[in-house]
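Homework-ish question, so no full write-ups if that breaks the rules, but can someone show me the predicted structure for this set?
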Amino acid sequence: MADEKKHKATRSGKLLVPALAALMGFLVGALVILITGKNPLLMFNAMIQGVTGINVAKGSFNARYIGEFVLQAMPIILTGLSVGFAFRTGLFNIGAEGQLMLGSLGATAVALLVKAPPVVHIPLVLMGGMLAGGLWGAVPGLLKARFNVHEVVVTIMLNYVALHVNNWAILNVFGSADRVKTAVFPASAMLKDPWLQNLSGGSRLNWGFVPVILAIVAYWFIIEKTTFGYGLRAVGFNKDAAKYAGLKVNRNVMLSMLLAGAFAGLAGAIITSGTFGFGRALSAAEGYGFDGIAVALVGATQAPGILLAGLLFGMLKAAGPLMQSQGIPKEIGGIIQASIVLFVAMKYGIERIGLWLRAKKSGSQQSVADSAVGEEAGV
Amino acid sequence: MNLILEMFPIALMFGAPIVIAALGGLFSERSGIVNVALEGIMMIGAFAAASVTVLLEPSLPGFAPWIGIVAGMLAGLVFSSIHAFTSINLKADQVISGTALNILAGGLTVYLCQIFFRQQRTRAFSSGLRKITVPFLEDLPLVGKMFFREIYPTFYVALALVVLTWFVVFKTPFGLRLRSCGENPQAAASMGIRVHGMRYAGVLLSGLFAGLAGSTMVLTQDIQFTVTSIHGTGFIALASLVFGKWSPWGVLAAGMFFGFSQTLSLYAKDIPFLEKLPTEAFYVLPYVLTIVALILFAGKTVGPKAAGEIYDQGKR
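A: Not a homework solution, just the prediction itself:
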C-alpha cells in the first residue's frame, strides 16, 4: 500500500516537476522585468505573437512569426534529443554544441563536393551532418568506455576544439571570399524553399521540420521499443547491474554517444542547408548545446516531452526580437531558461515540498516520513 | 630571444586570470562540489567590475578599477551562492546547476547592460588597471625584463594566491577538513566536521576567486564588458585544474602554460618554425592537452574522490 503510493508520487512528479519549474521560471522572468521597471505583460504579448502571429494588443496577424517560431524550435529539439539520448544511458553530453558544429561542417562538405539530383543530394547532406556529428560524439564515448575518462570535461573541451576545427576547415579547405562563409550551396543541396518561405509570409521556414519529426519518432522508437534501447536504459539505471546481466556496457556507452552526436549533427546540417545555405566560420558558440540541455531536462528525456520543451524554448527565442522592439531586452529569454533549468535541477527540493504539502493536506504525518525516506533512498 | 622576452608580459596577463579562476575551482572541487560555472561567475565578476569602474571613474580616477575589482569579487560570491544552495542544500546535480549558472550569466549580464547602459555592452572605461614596474628588480638581467618591467600587477596577485591557497589547503586544519569533505564526506562527518559548512566555504571561495579573475581579465584585456569578454577562459581554468592535478602549483604551471599558448598564437607569424601552423592550432592546444592528460591520468587516483557526488548522510 505504501509502495503503491510512493510509485504514484514519483510518476506524477515526473510531469509535475518540469511543469512547475517552467511556471516558476516565467515567474522569475516576469519579476526581473518588473524590478527593472518594465511591463511583464509586454513579454507575454510578445510570446503569444511569436507563436500564433497574432498581435493581441493591435489585433493584427502575420504568418511570418509562425514560420520563425518553427525555425527556432527545430535545432533545439534536435540538440535536446542529443542530450536526452545520452542522459538515458547515464551520460551527460555537454558536447552537443561541438557535435552540431561538426555536423554543419559535414553537411557543408557534402553540399559543396558532391553533385547529385535533389532527391539524393539532400538526404546525403543530412547524413553527412549526422555522420560527422556522430563521430565527434563518439570520441568522448570511446574515452569513457576505454579509459573511464569523465565525459563532462571531455565534451566541454571538445566544444572549443570543434569551433576552431570548423573555422579552420571553412576558411582553408572550402575557401571563403569574405573570411566568414563559403560559397552558396547548389540548389540541389538546399532545404530552403521559396514556396515555404512565401507560404509563411517571408520567414526563413524550410523543410528541416521533416527530418526533425523523423528524428523524434526514431528517438522514441529506439529508446522505448527496441532491445538496444532497453540495454541503453539499463546501463543508465545501473551500470554494474547491467554488466552483471551480460550487457556490453562499454559498447552501449560508445553507441549512445555516437547516436547522441548524430542527433546534434543533424541539427547542424539543418541550420546550414536550411537556414543559411552556406557553411559559416563562427566567432563563438551559438548556444544550441546549452539550449539542448534545457530542452532535455524540461522534457524529462521523453520524446514527447522534448518536443514540447523544444517548442517552449523556441517560443522564447522567437519572441526575443519582438520583446526587444518593445523595450524589454531579449536576453530575458536566457534568464528564464536558466531559471527553469535551475528549478528542474532542484527537483529533489521541489518534490520534498510537494510531498510536505500533500501530507499536510491529508494530515497524516506518518506518510511524510515514509515517503521522504523512500525518496532519499531513491536518490 | 628578444621575442620571447617580449611575449612574457602578455603571457602573464593572459595567464593570471586563468590561474586565479582555477584556484577558485580548486577550493570548490576539493570540498566535493564540481564547479563548471567558473565561466559564468567570471562573466558576472567582469560585468560588475566594468560597470563599477565606468560609474566611479569620473569621481575617483585611479581608484575606480580597484573598487571595481572588489565589486566583481562580491558579485562572484553572491552568484556562486546559488550554486552552493542548489547543489548542497537541494542536492541538485552539480553539473546541471553549474550549466544553468553559465546560461544565466550570459543572459543576466547582457540584460543588465541594456537596463543600465542602453546597449548590448557596458560603456567603455577610460582606463583599466595600470601596468607597473618594480624598481631595482627591473634592472636584473633577463628576469627583470620578463617579470618586473611593464607588468600588470594581476600576475603578482595570482602568484600570491597560489602560495596562499597551497598554505590554506595543505597546511591548515581548515584545509584538511575541506579536503576530507571532498574525499569521503561520510567519514568527515563522523569526525564531527560540518560537511555542508565546509562545502559552502569551498563554493563561495570559488565564487570570490572566479569573480576576481573575471574582474582582472576585463580590466587588463578589454575596454568594456561584452558578452564575449570572457570567451571560454573559465573553461580553460577548468582545464588547468584538471591538467594541474588539483594542486595549486600544478594549476600555476598549467594556467601559465595555457597563457603562453594563447600568446604564441599572436606571435606565431614572426617565429620561423611556427608560422606554417594555422592559428587555430594554438587555440585548441589547451583543450587537446587536457584531454590527453585525462587519458594519461586514467585509472590513477587524481582529484577529489567524492567531487560531483551528491552527499547522502546515510551512505556508508
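Now go work out the reasoning yourself. Hint: The two ends of chain B are 58 Å apart (CA to CA).
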